[in-house]
Design brief:
The chain has twelve helices and 13 strands. The chain is an alpha/beta fold and 430 residues long. The protein folds into four domains: 46-125, OB fold (Dihydrolipoamide Acetyltransferase, E2P); 130-151 and 159-285, 3-Layer(aba) Sandwich (Rossmann fold), CATH 3.40.50; 287-326; 377-419, no CATH class. Strand 6 (162-166), helix 4 (171-183) and strand 7 (189-193) form a beta-alpha-beta unit. Residues 7-18 have a biased composition (Pro residues).
Length: 430
């Protein structure tokens, strides 16, 4: 009979099914079924609870959904199941990576010993709640200076290698490659694939960012995703990713959504692109535009050089047309005649001055001769001076017997004084 339990025999251990888990021991163990029934009975007493988290697993099997819900702040998870009858009442757009709240009730499966939660209701977290949290984070990061334009790194004019972080085989990857290669065919990409939503989005994107940032050949990094529901873009507003982007030494371009999608990554990145296509246009220059620009500047340079050369030729011709340059020997001839006249005039002036000075010298010489004692001596006069050179001006200076020297017009001779002579006596006898 079903449910029959044999009566315990004195001196023997009771059957396991009859032992309650609280009363079990090594001598009287309980059975697995009894343990599972006890656990299920305990769990069934729990009521329903509302829980908030992120869907990290969403598998459909036979019309039912089996998944996992992850805590937004930690790595804690729970497993859940949604029966097909319940699934019909839930929103159709629930998907992996969604931020949801769910009404769940604990359940324990006695056959397998698995613990899980059955979902009675599940819906997206109100956008207002999410926006409020993002705005608080935005205000905090802005206060720290992560949005300041002064810390934004400029993009290189023509990057040699572009690092690309995007989903594998995604439209965003194709758009970036196609538009960049159309603008600059020689562009080189170094692509790292990462999940663009769900629980793997943030860690995989951070890992790809660090790998590309450490690559010395990568000049700029583009993080691209082709837009989507705001719920799916929450990973690109995660604080961990934002701080990793702010700490990167390589310029980072955010190309996450469409024009109206503004995750916080757009504010922290060095440049925001509205779409992956826009990112390609901002990262690499258009070769056609650059060629046209080079042609334009080349034309302007040729025009300016032509104008300058033409102007200089005209100036040169004007200078060459002047008489002095057309026949330079005429200027030399005129200057030569002028120089000859000046030289002749100079010689005449010098000759006149020399003649005048010669006459003046002759006059002075004649005057000097007239005043010279030699001229007086030449007329017969003589000068007598004593042996010590004193000129005799008074006869008393030369008493009788005194030796004197007499200087005449031609030479001198010695004489001896005979003393003072009387008045009227012949002076030649002295």
């Amino acid at each position: 009979m079903t449910g029959f339990r044999p009566e315990p025999v004195p001196g023997q251990a009771p059957p396991p099914d009859s032992v309650h888990p609280r009363d079990s021991s090594a001598q009287a163990p309980t059975s697995v079924s009894r343990l599972n029934d006890t656990i299920r009975g305990f769990v069934s007493n729990w009521g329903s609870v509302w829980v908030e988290g992120e869907i990290t697993l969403w598998n459909r099997r036979g019309g039912n959904v089996f998944g996992r819900l992850k805590d937004l702040a930690t790595d804690s998870m729970i497993s859940f199941r949604i029966w097909s009858s319940t699934l019909q009442r839930l929103p159709d757009d629930l998907a992996l990576g969604d931020h949801v709240i769910a009404s769940v009730k604990a359940d324990y499966f006695v056959k397998t010993g698995d613990f899980g939660f059955g979902v009675a209701m599940m819906k997206h977290v109100g956008l207002g709640d999410q926006l409020e949290k993002l705005e608080r984070l935005r205000a905090r990061l802005r206060a720290e200076g992560l949005f300041d334009a002064t810390r934004k790194k400029p993009l290189p004019f023509l990057p040699h290698v572009i690092g690309l972080i995007t989903g594998e085989n995604s439209d965003a990857e194709k758009d970036v490659h196609r538009n960049a290669e159309l603008r600059w065919p020689q562009v080189v990409f170094r692509t790292r694939h990462a999940a663009v939503q769900g629980d793997r989005c943030v860690p995989e994107t951070i890992a790809a960012l660090k790998a590309l940032d450490a690559d010395p050949e990568v000049d700029v990094i583009v993080i691209a995703r082709g837009g989507g529901d705001p719920q799916h873009l929450l990973g690109f507003s995660d604080e961990r990713l934002l701080r990793a982007v702010a700490a990167a030494s390589t310029p980072v371009v955010s190309a996450i959504g469409h024009e109206n999608d503004r995750p916080l990554l757009d504010d922290v990145a060095d440049l925001r692109a509205s779409t992956p296509t826009d990112a390609a246009k901002k990262v690499v220059p258009d070769v056609a535009e650059q060629r046209a620009l080079v042609a334009h500047y080349r034309s302007r340079l040729t025009s300016r050089l032509t104008q300058r050369v033409t102007h200089d030729i005209a100036q040169l011709e004007q200078l060459r047309s002047r008489p002095v340059l057309r026949a330079p020997h005429t200027m030399l001839q005129g200057r030569s005649h002028e120089l000859h006249l000046l030289a002749t005039r100079g010689r005449d002036t010098i000759d006149r001055r020399l003649d005048a000075q010669a006459r003046r010298a002759a006059e002075l010489r004649a005057t000097l001769r007239a005043l010279s004692p030699a001229a007086t001596l030449a007329r017969g006069y003589a000068i007598a001076h004593l042996q010590d050179g004193v000129i005799v001006r008074d006869a008393a200076q030369a008493p009788a017997g005194a030796g004197v020297v007499v200087t005449v017009g031609r030479g001198s001779f010695a004489a001896r004084s005979e003393g003072e002579v009387a008045e009227g006596a012949d002076s030649s006898t002295a």
